[in-house]
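Changelog entry

Holo records now carry the ligand SMILES as an explicit input line rather than a separate metadata file. Below, a converted record for ribulose-5-phosphate, shown in the new format.
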Amino acid sequence: MSDTLSPIDTAKFVAARKALDYVEDGMKLGLGTGSTAAWMVRLLGDMVREEGLNIIGVPTSSRTAELARQQGIRVVSLDEAKWLDLTIDGADEFDPELNLIKGGGGALLQEKIVATASDQMIVISDVSKRVETLGHFPLPVEVIPFGWQTTKALVEETLVAMDVLGQQSTLRMSGDAAYVSDEGNHIIDLHLQRIGNARQLALVLNQIPGVVENGLFIDICDKVIIGHGDGRVTVRDIISGEESEDQVEFEESENIFADLD
Ligand SMILES: O=C(CO)[C@H](O)[C@H](O)COP(=O)(O)O
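Structure line, unchanged by the conversion:
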């Protein structure tokens, strides 16, 4: 990877960096999954080492657990932590109400459980994920392997009955085999283009036998930190309605991307 950050990497980096302003000593933190969240975990590791913070992390995937441990962050299960102060995670899309599509990285089930068990969820994202209406990004639906083809057919029938635009669904693959989540499930991606009523769709999908969870996060996210390619961040809080802007300064020499795989 080049030593110079691309605008998209800069945007993700500054969003991740800004999120750490909300981390306090003694917090129990939900640690998200994906490239933006991975950079947040790396920066959090630096903070824990340099400032000696007493932080407990609950990862939302085996990948994040491994990274957090490598970074010297104390990792516990959600059952051990019970309730979290804050979860910081990425997203595939967010709308003006801060409803989200998540699960592009296949970790939506643990991500939703962890975010819901937190006092606050902050999403960190580059500006490209901001949409007026959710649905351009394929909506992931996690299903149990038993009878997954029947579940897929039922999901498609449901989309037709709800008159949702675009009713195609595909089984997510990992090479030649079906993708298997950390919980041993498969993922069906729904290619919808536009989700008119995300709240209703989220509820209806979870009524279908075989569906474990869907990637619509409704009323879960409290704040979004949007990174821009020039180092600016916009912070939007859904509860206060406030929006603020800041500039995150960093040296190219601290390019944490340079040693990523
Ligand atoms: O939901 C997720 C993983 O299941 C990720 O948060 C989402 O896919 C965004 O990833 P990235 O930060 O790499 O763009």
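Spot-checked after migration. The radius of gyration is 18 Å. Residues 7-129+219-259 form a domain with the Rossmann fold fold (CATH 3.40.50.1360).
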